[in-house]
UniProtKB/TrEMBL annotation:
Protein name stated in the entry: DUF4235 domain-containing protein
Organism: Thermobifida fusca TM51
InterPro entries for this protein: DUF4235
Amino acid sequence: MADKDGDLAARIIGGVAALAAAYVTRKALTLLWTKAVGKEPPADPESPDISLGEALGWAVLTGVGMEVTRVLAVRTVHKRLAARAPRAPERPQR
């Protein structure tokens, strides 16, 4: 991102949007996991009591899901803020 007026505001709003999207995504992934597997996702995937396949599955699902959500949320905020930002007048052609 270029340093521009309003860049800090865009970063803050993008961060808040990413946090909100992450919260919703985490809830959705937990529900999806519970429906698919039939039990709650592992609370501590590093625990030796959890099977390796279950721990890796949950780690991959949450890692990819959360990062995709974060990218989409931040890009959406920046796109909407850019559309509302005043544009510099074009210079006349010579």
